[in-house]
Input
Amino acid sequence: KYAMVKRQGDFERVRLLSVASATHKVTANLGYYLKTGIFSFPHKGGPSMLELKHISYSVQEADETLGILKDISLTIDDHKLVVFTGPNGGGKTTLAKIIMGLATPTEGQILWNGQDVTHLSITQRARLGISYGFQQPPRFKGLTVRDLLTIASGDQKLTKDKCCQYLTRVGLCANDYLDREVDVSLSGGEVKRIEIASILARNSQLMIFDEPEAGIDLWSFARLTETFEQIHSQGSATMIIISHQERIISLADEVIVVGDGTLRHRGTPKEILPRILTDTLGGCPVLNKEVHAL
Output
């Protein structure tokens, strides 16, 4: 049944679908990830809290050092839903990747549930209960959606009904998708929703979603926002969502505007949305009049 998973040990190692790649551009086969050891066991511990202390990240380009993130400090409490938003290229995805371990900060410290994870690998962080959903999820030739959900959940006897629950929450029908391979035959939006379903199957303590609305139609988007609301109301996980969508922003306990590598604004959706609109509209007197009415 699992053509590419030959041993029980291999099966256990591929449990973390949500952190399948160190780059969102990958189109990979499962064998590569078995060799790299990225997949591992989910953490089953207690409450958690994320703390970033003076995080900076820079890259070298020719003879110039470019600062991508600049002295960012923040704390995200247990079971909160936090949205990172802001202009493209402002540092949102880089900050999320640093939390997951896909990038290493040039300076600063990352604490997860009181433990310093700054220099831990992706696998080690995943074992502590952190999951990541990419903007462009990887594809796995030879692996079906059923396989993917089974691996992600860690339950080798995962029932069709349970798979159906995960897929329904992201707007997909199990009868249409369970036996399909996660390969190029699926659209970008379909692969995106399947990846989110696999993160739900993992039941992680910290779920990071990078623009989950990308490539998803309006009907599926509505169901997806309902899913985020349900997870949040259950108090079962902390969520960080990178998004530009007002509907998702409105769900947040806190909105953090990231721009030019810094935290520009922080606050509730009611406090932050007018600021976002003002920044976006610039000096247009007609549109600004509407913003002030808010």
In short: The chain is about 35% helix and 25% strand. The chain has a mean pLDDT of 81. The two ends are 57 Å apart (CA to CA). Residues 218-234 form the longest helix (17 residues).
